[in-house]
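Bug report (template v2)

What were you trying to do?
Predict the complex of my protein with F0G.

What happened?
Run completed; filing so the output is reviewed.

Input:
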Amino acid sequence: MERSWRTIIEPFKVKAVEPLGFTTRSQRQAILKKAGYNLFNVSADQVLIDLLTDSGTSAMSSEQWACLMRGDESYAGARSFFRFERVVRELTGYRHVLPVHQGRAAERILLGVLGGKGKVFLSNSHFDTTRANVEATGARAVDLPAPGALDFAKSAPFKGDIDLRALESELRSVGAKNVPMVIMTATNNSLGGQPVSMRNLREASAICRRRGVPLILDAARFAENAYLIKQREPGFSRRSAADIAREMFSLAQGCMMSAKKDALVNIGGFLALNDDEWVRRARELLILGEGFPTYGGLAGRDLEAMARGLEEVLDERYLAYRLRSVQYLGEGLRRHGVPIVEPPGGHAVYVDAKRFLPQIPPAGFPAQALVCELYLTAGLRAVEIGSLMFGRGRGAGFVPARMELVRLALPRRVYTQSHVDFVIEVFEDIAERAASLRPLRLVEAPAALRHFTARLAPAGRA
Ligand code: F0G
């Protein structure tokens, strides 16, 4: 028998390196002030470890870089498209494959075909761009997270599930004919990167079939979800991640994919569907906004790299390392008493700033205060998912978000265990003086998607 080891090593060696952005504390102080205490306004060269997102930030493999030379850049019918189409068909089982430049383009096209006033979309949780694209058509987006999904302190294996009872009752009250599709986001990024169980997916699929409503996967992190099923769901430990992923796709009638996550590329996405009529209309929108259907806003080399990435991501050595790294970060934070969304997600650890900084009320943006402190202390960049992102209004009209979280998203194959150890050490330092962190106030903010461009300042100062 092969012996099993405690340490899960990065299953790759490094061929090209990039320097990290070292700065001094006094530089960071000035940078923060100039950036209006908003890390979206800080240039990446001034960031030491960038945990802003796992989207489009993956390191490609040497094989993927080699794919760039193999790309066929023909306008129509490129060889690279047919290779890409074959890989997506084999993985998903869906007949039609439409490449797009990124996930939200797939959303805009599919929701453009199916949305409209009076329609209601149901989901375990719509990601923000999905919700925005639903609402842009005049339709409504309703989230039906599993009971307990918002109880961040309590650990459960599949907090990404949809609430099946709520799904039944919404379908009954809204009327199935007004629900163009049910969207299962796997993993559920909006609520802690938590996975959806196969059991939940099977049952949701059966409910949808009985009601004649299509089920569509938002498959951005399908491989992480599949591997978490393998690790956590009874009956799956002996099945391969690829096999589990194929079953997940088989329970839906199509998928929207942001390839910037689990296809291990820096740009790309696709729509894969079975319904001929949807595809006919989607193609029209694709040509209008993205490009000819065999390239969809991408270069031939991007299609090659995506095809290769979709194969590499299902390598179980990679997935074991990937999920272990996120878990390891979670364990480190927990050790220093930092409250996190339990359990750690597939792509990120989410710190619960409401509990970590109880002295800062939601109106003082506790999660953003922590984001700024992480940067000031050591040049780390994370993202706020709280009242800056989802709250509304200001002053007396302020309406807080349901949560005050800081997401530490791990780019794929980019950082090593020592980088993660460093992040844990920074949290150890901040945890010792958490009570001294102070609130922020909004100085300037647009009405929509304000977190990208808002400017803030320490409360009580000009
Ligand atoms: N669906 C999910 C679940 C996502 O997390 C994202 C993007 C999208 C769709 C949209 O894809 O960015 O390629 O247009 N999430 C990124 C993030 C932005 O940081 O979580 P896109």
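What did the reviewer find?
The mean pLDDT is 96. Residues 53, 55, 102-104, 127, 129-130, 185, 189, 218, 220, 258, 260, 269 surround F0G (CB under 6 Å).
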